[in-house]
Structures are given as structure tokens and as C-alpha cells.
Specification:
Layout: E1 5-8, E2 11-16, E3 19-22, H1 24-35, H2 41-52, E4 67-72, E5 81-86, E6 89-92, E7 98-101, E8 108-109, E9 117-118, H3 121-128
Antiparallel strand pairs: 1-2, 2-3, 4-5, 4-9, 6-7, 7-8
């Protein structure tokens, strides 16, 4: 996809059919074109169509780049506390549920966020009752 506007003679211009325009609205369009890389627009349009069909979902974190925190119960070998986990990949189901997979045994399920799984250590510590553990 290419730009609609071009800079010539000291001002932004646009050609529509056989007529060339300039003015404040062309300046605003040029600013918008500068702000959004046009190579991203076809991808954005594709994502909007997929989202309209219910094919998109936003995960709470990015696999391979985020640590999540799991509350451990007294049944855990290390006892009650907080375990840090690195998310390696995700599984997404058609109903909008997901599982974040990590090096531990129990997957991080959507339904467990805010209960036994947290995105920050502070949230996990607050849920644990303020106790700090590694």
C-alpha cells in the first residue's frame, strides 16, 4: 500500500483523479500517514476481518517473554509460596479459553488468572497474604 499524499513545493498535496489538492485536511492526512506505517495497514485490515469472524483473541502476556507467578499450595513439595514461571507457548480453544504452558506441571488456565496465577509478583504476594517466598 502506498501513500496518498506527497510533499512538493513546500506543502503536502494529494491527487484525486485529475485534480490536485492541498490544505489543512491534506496536512492532517499526511500526518496520519506518517504516524501509521502503511505496510502494517494490510495486516491490520486482515486482523479486523478475522476479529469480526471471532478468530482473534488477546492473551494476557506474550509467550517466551513473560514470567507469570503461581501460588503454591501446602501440597506442593516446596510448600506454600510463589513459583515464578516462564511462559513458553499457548494453546487457544475455540470457546475463547486458553492455557499458557511453562516448565512446571500445571498449565496456567484463563479461569485461574487472578486466583492462583498472576502477571506480577506483587499481585501474587497480595493474594498469598503479603507473605514473600520464592
Amino acid at each position: 500500500m502506498e501513500r496518498c499524499t506527497y510533499f512538493e513545493g513546500g506543502k503536502w498535496r494529494i491527487r484525486l483523479g485529475d485534480t490536485e489538492y492541498s490544505g489543512s485536511w491534506v496536512d492532517r492526512l499526511a500526518a496520519y500517514e506518517d504516524a501509521i506505517p502503511f505496510d502494517k495497514l494490510p495486516r491490520a485490515a486482515e486482523l479486523v476481518k478475522a476479529d469480526d469472524k471471532g478468530l482473534c483473541m488477546v492473551l494476557p502476556c506474550e509467550p517466551s517473554a513473560v514470567t507469570v507467578y503461581q501460588l503454591r499450595s501446602k501440597k506442593h513439595a516446596l510448600g506454600v509460596g510463589i513459583s515464578q514461571r516462564i511462559v513458553s507457548c499457548a494453546t487457544v480453544w475455540g470457546d475463547g479459553n486458553y492455557a499458557l504452558h511453562h516448565q512446571g506441571a500445571d498449565d496456567c488456565l484463563k479461569k485461574d488468572f487472578g486466583k492462583t496465577w498472576f502477571l506480577t509478583r506483587a499481585e501474587a504476594e497480595a493474594a498469598l497474604g503479603g507473605g514473600k517466598d520464592g
